[in-house]
Write the C-alpha cells for this entry.
Amino acid sequence: MLKNKGTLTRLLEYAKPYRAYLILSFLFSVIFAAANLYTPIIIGDGVDLIVSAGNVDFESLKFVLFRFIAVILIMGVSQWLMGLCTNKVTYNTIKDIRFDVFCKLERVPIKYIDQNPHGDLLSRIINDAEQIQDGLLLGFSQLFSGIVTILATIGFMLKINFYITLVVVLLTPISLFVASFIAKSTYNMHKIQSKTRGELSGFVEEMITSQKVVKAFAYEQKAQERFDEINERLKKCGLAATFFSSTVNPSTRFVNGLVYTATGIAGALFAIAGRISVGQLSAFLTYANQYTKPFNEISGVIAELQSSFACAKRVFDTIDEKEEEKDPDNAITLNGENGKNQKTVNGNVEFKNVCFSYSKDTSLIENLNLKATKGQKIAIVGPTGSGKTTLINLLMRFYDVDSGQILVSDIPVKEIKKKSLRSSFGMVLQDTFLKSGTIRENIAFGKKDATMEEIIEAAKSAYAHSFIKRLPKGYDTVVCDEDENISVGEKQLIQIARVMLTKPKMLILDEATSSIDTITEIKIQKAFEKMMEGKTAFIAAHRLSTIKEADIILVMDKGKIIEQGSHEELLKKGGFYKKLYESQFETY
Amino acid sequence: MLKLVKYLKGYIKESIIGPLFKLLEAIFELIVPLVMAKIIDVGIKNSDKAYILKMCGILVFLGVLGFICSITAQYFAAKAALGFSAALRRDLYKHINSFSYTELDKIGTSSLVVRLTGDVNQVQNGVNLILRLLLRSPFIVIGAVLMSFFINFKLTLIFVAVTILMSGIIYFIMSKSVPHYKRAQEKLDKITQITRENLIGARVIRAFYMEDDEIKNFEDMSGSLLKTQTYVGRISSLLNPATYLILNLGIVLILYFGAFSVNIGTITQGELIALINYATQIILALLALSQLIIAITRAQSSSIRINEVFEIAPSMKNGEGVAIKDDGVKIEFKNVSFSYSDTAEEALSGISFSINKNETIGIIGGTGSGKSTLVNLICRFYDANSGEILIDGVDIKKFSFSQLREKISLVPQKASVFSGTIRENVKFGKDYVSDEEILKALEIAQLAEFVDSKEEGLDFMVLQGGKNLSGGQRQRLTIARALVGNPEIIILDDASSALDYQTDAKLRKALKELKDKTIIIVSQRCATVKNADKILVLDDGKLVGAGRHEELLKNCAEYQEIAKLQLGEGVLGNA
C-alpha cells in the first residue's frame, strides 16, 4: 500500500477540484452509516419488548416501529445521494485524467509517437483509465461509510459493554493486515496484466490497420498465432492477478467469523452473569457483524486498488513524458499580427552547419549549409534515404537539430512560436492523411471559418473539384483515412487543396505529387506557381518534371548536399545530377 | 450474454464446481444463526458455560470449512472466467481477421479495438462475479427462507413477498440501464477514434496547428461520455438504497407480526431473533446481488456489442480450391464492372482484356482512373459486380483464398510495413523462406545495400508504420516482401512512386531478369511501362487502349498525351 503512496496522492490531486462533492459524499455517508448503525438498536429495543407469551408491550412497540421506518427512509435517501456524489467525483476525475493524456499526446515530440505502438497508447486511455475509475468508485463509496461505521459501531458497542468491545476491536484489524499482505503481493501481477493488455491492444490495432496487407499475404494464420501467444500470456497473468486478489474476501470473512464467535462466547458468558440482556446481546452480535463488514469491504477495496494503481502508473508515465520544447517567453510571431514580437515573413530560410540523426549510431545530415531567399524555389533531389524528408522534419521542428541552427526570416527557429512557424509553411506530405469527417472539413483543415466558395476555389486549383463533384454526396461525403473509395492520388489532391486554401507564406512539398499522373501534376504545378509567385518553396521530389523549373536544385546523397545549382548548370557539370537525370531515359 | 455462454466450454468443470463450493460455504454460513440461537436459548437460559464453548467450537470449525470452500470456489471461478475471456477474444479476433475492408469499415478500427479489449473485459468481470456470487446469494436467500419457514410459516411469507417485490424493482432498474451502458461504450469508441487519428496523423495535425481543435474535439466527446455515465449512474445508484429500504421494511413487518406470534406463544423470543437474523442475512445477500447486477448490466451491453461483430458475415466466400487449366492465359477479364458501394459511381466499367503467362504488363492512367481498383479485383479483395475474372482459366471465385495468395503477390500503393525485424517483414508469414531467399529478394528490391549498412542486418528493428525508414526504403521493403515465396503473379501498384529514377531503373532491370513470372506494373511513368509486353490504358474507369508502346503512340489519344509530356515531343516523331 505504501509503495503506491505517490500514485495515490496524484490520483487524489485529480479528485481535488471536486472535493466539495467528496465532502458531501462524506456527510451523506455519515448520515447513512449512523442510521444503519442505529437500526440494530431499534431492533434490539423492539426485541426487548417482545419477551414471551403474554409478555409483549404493543404500545411501545408501535413507537419503536415508527422510529424504525423514519430511520430507514433517511438511510435510503442519504445512500442514494452519496452514490450520486461519488459518481460525480469519480467520473469527472477520470475525464480529467483522460484529457491530460490526450493533451500530452498532442505535445510530446513526434519521436514518442513514432516509437510507441499506437494500440498500447490507446489502451492507456481506454482500459487503464477504466480500471482506475472502477477502483476509485469502489474506494470512495466504501471508504467513507466504512470508516464512519467502524467508529460509530465502536461507540455503540462501548455503550453496551466494554470488555466485549475490546475483544472485537483487537481481533478485527487482523483482517486489514491480511489484506495488505495479499495486496502487496498482487501489485506486481496487476502491473504485468496491464502491460500485457497494452501489448495485445498494440498488436491488434497494428494488424487491423493494415488488414489489406495481412489479407494479401495470407498472413491471417500467422497473425492469429501471434495473437494467441499474447492472449495466452494475458490469460495466465490475468488468472494470477484475479485469483490472488480474490482471496482477500474469504480471508477477511474468516477473520470476521472468528470475531463473531469470540463475541458470541464473551457475550453469552456476560449474559449468564446477568451483565447484559439477551436483547443487548442480539444488538451486540449485529454490531459485531456491522463492525467487521467495513473491514471486509476496505480489504476488498485495497485489493481492487492494486489493479487501479498499476494502471494509474502507466497512465501517469505518459502524462509525465517530456513535451516538445516550449516556446520561450518572448517568442516571435511570424505572420503579421499586430503586437509585440512580431515580424513579417521575408521568405529567407537558412540552414547553418546543421547536424542531425534519428539515432545516435547512424549519422544522417552532417554540416548542412543552405541559403534560400524570398521567392526562390528550392528542389531537393536525391536517392531515397538521402535526407529529404528529414530536412522537412527539421524545418517544421518535428525534430530538433542536434547541432547548428535553422533560421527562418533571419530568426533562429527556436525563438519563433511553433504555432506561427508551422502555419507559415504550407505543407503537403508524402503520406496522405484524411481525418474522419466530410471532404469539406478535410479541406478546411487550416482555416476553420472558410466559406464554401473559398473551399471550392481551393479544390478547383488543386484539380480536385471534378472528382469530388462526382461523389455521391459531393463535398459532404464522409471520408476517413482507410477509405478505398477515393484513390491515393485523389487523397493527395485533397491535401493540396488544403494548402491552396490557407495560402501560406512558404511552401513545403514532400513528394506531394508522387501518386498523381503527369498531366494533372503539370496543371497543379501551374496552380502552385501562381500561388507561390514571390514566395519561397521547398520541394522534395523525384519527378524531374517537377524539378526542372526550380531556381536551385540541391542534390543530396547520404545526408550531404553534393551539388547545388540550376537544372542547366548541373547538367553542364556532368556529375551526380546528370546521371540521375539520364536514368529517366534508360531503356530497360 | 447467453449467446456467449458457449465460450465457457472447456471450463464446464470449473464453472460447476466453483459455484458448488460457494454453495457449501453458504450452507455453513446459514447454520451459524441456528447455532447462535441455540447458544441463547439453551446456553444462556440454562447458564451452561460448557455448552456455550462447545457451540463456539462448532462455529470456528464452520468458519474454517467455509474459508476452504470459498478459496476453492474463487480459484475455479477465476479460472473459468479467464479461460472464457481468452477463448472469446481468440474467436473474436479470428472473426475480425476474416473481414475484408468493407466489413472493417462498417465498424471501424477503433471500435474493434475497444470491443476486443474493453468490452471483453467487462464480460469477463461479469462472468467472474456471476460464478462467485450467483449461486451464493440466491442460495443463502432460499436457504434462509427455508430455515425461517421451519420456524414460522406466516411470518416468512411476509418476507418472501417483500423479496419478490424487490426483485421486480431490480429487474426494472437493470433493463433501464442496459441501453445507456451501451451508449457509454459507443462514446468510448469515439474517444478512441479521435486519439487514434491524432496518433496516425500527428505530423499533419501539428503542421496545420490543429492541436487545439483536436483537444476541443476530445473534450466535447469526453463531456458527452460524462453525461451518459452520470445519467446511467443516477439509475444504478438507486439499486442499493431501494434494496435496503424495502428489505428493512420487511423487518418492520416481521417485528410487528412477530410480536403477535410471540404473544400467543407460536414462537419464542429466541426464534424471533433467529428470524430477524435470517432476514438480515437475506438483506446482505441481496445487497451483494445488487452489486452483481451492475456488473452484469455492463457485461450485457458489452456482450451486445461483441455479438454485433460476430453477426457481420464476411461478404466474400472462400472458394473450395480448384485445379487450374494451363492454356497460357494467366489472367482474363470479361466485361467486368465494379463500384465500391451501391451509391457510388462505377469505378470500372466493362473492362475486358487478357494477360498471358510470363508477360510483363503495364497499367497506366490518370489519377482516379481505376488502376488500383483493377488490382483490388485481381487480388480478390472485392468481387466484381458484373462480368467474369479468370485466373489460369478458372473463375477466380472458385479458388480458395490461400491458393490465390500463393499465386499472387502484391506491392500495394501505400507501403505498409510492420513493427518487427527486417527479416520478419520480408518473410511476413512465409516461415519456410530461408535467409538466402530473403537476401536475394532484398537485392532485387534494391534494399541490400541498406541492410548491409546496418549493424544488425536482417535483425534491424522496424518501428510501427516504418517510421524509422524513409519513404523509399519502406517501399523497397514491401517489394522484397512480395518477391519471396515464389509467386506466379507479381503486382506492383505504383510501387516506385517514392523511388528516384535511378533506383527505379535498377529495380526494373532486376525484375526483368526474373523468370517464369507474370508481372503487372501499375504506374504513372511512361518510362516504367514503356517496355512492357502490353500496356493497358485506363481513363475514368474504362479501358481506352491496350497494346505495345509503339501501337499506343499511334492509336491511343490518352497515351499520346502522357508520353508527350513525360518523354518529350520528339518521341511522337520517332514512332
